[in-house]
Amino acid sequence: MLPGRFRNHFYTQPLQKQENNVNKNELLALLQPDIEQINETMLSEISQCGNARLQQILEYALFNGGKRIRPVLTVLAARLCAFTRMPAGLAEEDELKPPVNLYRLAAIFEFLHGASLLHDDVLDNAGRRRGKPSANSVWDNTQVILAGDFLHARALTMAGTVGDHHTLSLIGMATAGMIQAEFLQMQAVEERNLSEENYFAVLRGKTGCLISAACEVGAYFAQSGDEHQTALRSYGDALGLAFQVVDDLLDYQGDPGKTGKAVGNDFVEGKMTLPLIHALQNSNQQDFDYIMGLLGENAALRAAKISEVHGFIEQYGGFTYARQGAEALVEAAIEALSVFPDCQSRNILAGLANYVLTRQK
Q1: pTM for this predicted structure
Q2: Which overall architecture, per CATH, does domain 21-358 show?
Q3: Helix count (H) and strand count (E) of the chain?
């Protein structure tokens, strides 16, 4: 079952795709100016690192095809809240000029995300990232770990100087949550944990907490009230969970040329994701024992059996169940925005939520 407030929504509401007036190409065009400003801000920050090799690693890791979703959410959340607070008719939404520090605040979340990817690739001994050689396959692990540490340190320093103690607290809690989730996931692999509650706790820590913090910090920076901060935190939480559920589906159903990783990589690593959990919970004893037996074997054998595992998940409705869960989470994310007036920023946030369901990488 889905966690908390999404549970009843998932089981009782019709699963209908939310309509909005922003398609993928329009989204990219509308977001491009902010993305360019975020990129310029990030380049300016890392150019001050004081070491040519470190800067080279950082540029390679940070400018390797990332979508900038997290920092964009900070900017959009701040813009939406600023427009909401503004007296009606005072100015058009597109006339609002964000303070320069907003982009520095937004860049914090890309630095934290980039640091986690650098460390993840070392821990997983990954050779590819976004279809290109990972940083740890270009440089040695020590240098890459230190580069990730630098991004963490720089992000927290920026949080304390651009924001205030509350900003630093929100970002610090999100960072701690990411680390705690890694331990929780490792324990789940060791224990073959089939609990959906545990699964979503991992997702919330690995993905949801940083995305929800990006939204909440943007709202706080715009001096919004508790209602709007809570709404954007809820939006980010649901968006992050949906994003990861779709990622778990792409692991089995995606095109390796687009996702940048082999089909079934999660199963090879022994990870218990939602499609597999649901199939195991609904399978007969013989099939259950067979798949659980594979999880106890070495990675090479699991890799050789991916087509069988794919068929097993399909047979017991794991893919359909996970897709419906992602749709319900996206619906919940969009519903969280209902406290805001109809405007471009709200429509873009809704469009980003729907984009999660159609992404291919």
Answers
A1: 0.86
A2: Orthogonal Bundle (1.10)
A3: 19, 2
